[in-house]
Amino acid sequence: MIPSATPLARLVVVLAAASAPALASAQEARDTLRLEEVTVTANRQPSEPRAVVASQTVITGRELRERGILFVHDALRDVAGVAVVQTGSYGAVTSLFLRGGESDYTKVLVDGVPVNRPGGSYDWAALSTDNIERIEVLRGPASVLYGADAMSGVVHVITRDGAGAPRLEGGAQGGTFGQYLVDGAARSGGERAAFSVSASGFGSDGFLPFNNAYRSTVATGRARLQADDRTDATVSLRYTDARAAFPTDGSGVAVDSNQYTTDRQFTLGVDVGRRLGARLDLRGVLTVNEGDFGFDNRPDSPGDTLGFGYDTQSSASVTRRGADVRLGWQPAPAVKVSVGALTEFERQRQQDRTLSDFGFGPSLEATTFEAERRTRAGYAQALLQPAPGLVLTVGGRVDDNSAFGTFWTARAGAAWEFATATRVRASVGNAFKAPTFAEQFANTAFEVGNPALRPERSVSWEVGVEQRGWDGRLVLGAAWFDQRFDDVIQYRYEAPGAPTYANLAGASARGLELTASLAPLPRLVLTGQYTRLLTEVTDTGAASSALVALGEPLLRRPGYTARVGGRYRLLDRVTVGSSVNVVGARDDADFSAFPAARVTLDAYALVDATVDAELVRPAGGRPGVAALLRVDNLFDAAYLSAVGFAGRGRTVVAGGRVRW
Q: What gap in Å lies between CA 152 and CA 507, rounded to an integer?
């Protein structure tokens, strides 16, 4: 529910003495151009921000650390067009819906390494902000640059570069729900070489009454080497090991005392470049993502031996490996061309064991699943500047997959900046999402894969305008987008042994994104965003239900979201900030009864506040000391993130850091 007027009135007072982080833009270091502390790689080649024709938002690592944000999904809640749903406490399944698309329509990269499961799904629960330099969010179809699963956009997490004097730091935090964090990091470097490393341990007892503990360990690293004036290389890695206990069933009722999930992921990226001439350069990228995922639900007691799956274990191993070679050519000052080719290998192995008893004795079902597929792709993109202030981009790509065949994608766009500091832009493109391995290859009693499945596909367009004023201290933006999704894969049961998946459904998502940034004082910045979203099921496919109803909105997509925030720096040592996030009403499915019923969840607003203070500055051999106080859901608003799943209440966290 929306808080009462009194808390919101108090919020106005809080914001009056606060400020919000300034915006920046970025992506992977080897593909970036630094300009006035801004980097942009939406074109996957060095480009000034004014040359980007798609909507983008970048969150800097400094902002994340000043605000005390520990998980990437919490930072993404502030981005226009993004809706985040977490079904429980820390570690619970967390989904992201970008511009109304499905939760598996967003490509997720960590230092250029794809980390989605084959088919696009990604659980955001364990992705932390450890050692992050920036997070870049590209909104709109991006398959022409990033291949499958980039239907609604791309989220790219980039590890901090180690440039600068040697630094060593460590910190600890503690707070509500038994939360703790212990972390350490080191970095150093110059023009020729640099490195950064970090490690952390996080834990919480959770906010549910029992079996809700979460533990995670994260290690990151990045090394950069400039062998000579023409050759450079970067290696980055990230390892996460997480375990989340949860007592809830599918409807959100706390019933289980010992079930849990595990999530272990390792990513490795190697990027090597060689300048072949004044107008020609070559880059090669190798990517590795290894993931092990588990689920364990043993009997809660010696008498817990009845019903379906009273004793269940599941384990899955996912491998994604890729190689990408790209040639950059600048035949003229106003023309930049990129041509590339890549190959990718995907494999999934899964074992499931389910013990059930319906009163006739135990029945064991054990299944083993293994499948793999390969993709080869070629792509090209041109960036043209035919006149002052005018930018044109056009690109194309073809993907050939061993399992679902060939798919072509294209994107074109234009941006024009006038002398009045007004910039207008427009873009159009198509994209696709690959089927999951289960949808193509499963073979169980109630799930049979369909090798004839086509990729899900979309056609999208957007127009936008940006206005700058007051010497750049005021930035206003607006964008209208329209997405059409077709060949959406849907489950249907027709007969024993027949494929249970088919390309049947369709949907649309369109909306308006408004953004604003204002710096009325040198140390004060205010920001805000508003998104109006209209989604509709245009084809139900097999049959209409609570999940897919013709003419109804897509589930868990709020009709509107909004954020207002502010940050103010006091005496160059203390940063005070606050923000309010509003999530509008949205439809969901209630699984507490059969068949599931469609319901509408109330809107809600959450207020957060942060104080980050530099108590002692490092000098000579003396370390610096800093302190952080963060309060999430300041007014302890009660709300549902999904039907049956309450959101986290007021959370207070305090901590300190020591820097050398």
A: 13
Answer yes or no: are the C-beta atoms of 19 and 523 closer than 8 Å.
Answer: yes
Share of the chain residues as helix, strand and coil, in percent rounded to the nearest 5 = 5, 60, 35
Structure tokens at 584: 């509008």
| Number of Cβ atoms within 10 Å of the Cβ of 387 | 10
Q: Buried b / exposed e across 214-234, counting CB within 10 Å, b at 16+?
A: bbbbbbbbbbbeeeeeeebbb
Q: Given CA atoms 73, 74, 75, 80 in this order, what sign does their dihedral have?
A: positive
Q: What is the mean pLDDT of residues 568-573?
A: 90
Cα gap 81→532, rounded to integer Å: 8
Cβ atoms of 250 and 221 within 8 Å: the answer is: no
CA angle 484, 146, 38 (to 5 degrees): 105
Q: Which among 509, 584, 588, 586 is positioned nearest to 546, based on CA atoms?
A: 588
**Under 8 Å between Cβ of 64 and 148:** no
pLDDT band of 9, cuts 50, 70, 90: very low
State residue 319's pLDDT score.
Answer: 98
Structure tokens at 514: 């408004």
The Cα 150–Cα 136 span in angstroms is 14
Of 289, 291, 292, nearest to 269 by C-alpha is 289
- Which residue from 597, 598, 590 is spatially nearest to 249, judged by alpha carbons? 590
Structure tokens at 534: 């209209």
CATH architecture of 5-659: Beta Barrel (2.40)
Annotate 280-327 with DSSP letters as a single string: EEEEEEEEEEEEEEEEEE--SSTT---EEEEEEEEEEEEEEEEEEEEE
Q: Give the pair of three-digit tokens for residue 19.
A: 């400020």
Helix (H, G, I), strand (E, B) or coil at 439: helix
Query: Tell me, what's the pLDDT at 1?
Result: 42
Q: How confident is the model at residue 596 (pLDDT cuts 50, 70, 90)?
A: confident
Q: Strand pairing partners for 343?
A: 323, 376
Which structure tokens are listed for 491? 């489950």
Omega of the bond leading into 247 within 30 degrees of 0 (cis) = no
Residue 336 to residues 34, 67, 654, Cα–Cα distance (Å): 17, 38, 49
CA distances in angstroms from 294 to 212, 263, 444, listed in the order given:
16, 7, 19
| Three-class secondary structure of residue 404 per DSSP | coil
Instruction: Tell me, rounded to whole angstroms, the distance of Cα 461 from its chain centroid.
Output: 21
User: 5 by DSSP, 3-state: which?
Assistant: helix
Assessment of whether the complete model's pTM goes beyond 0.85: yes
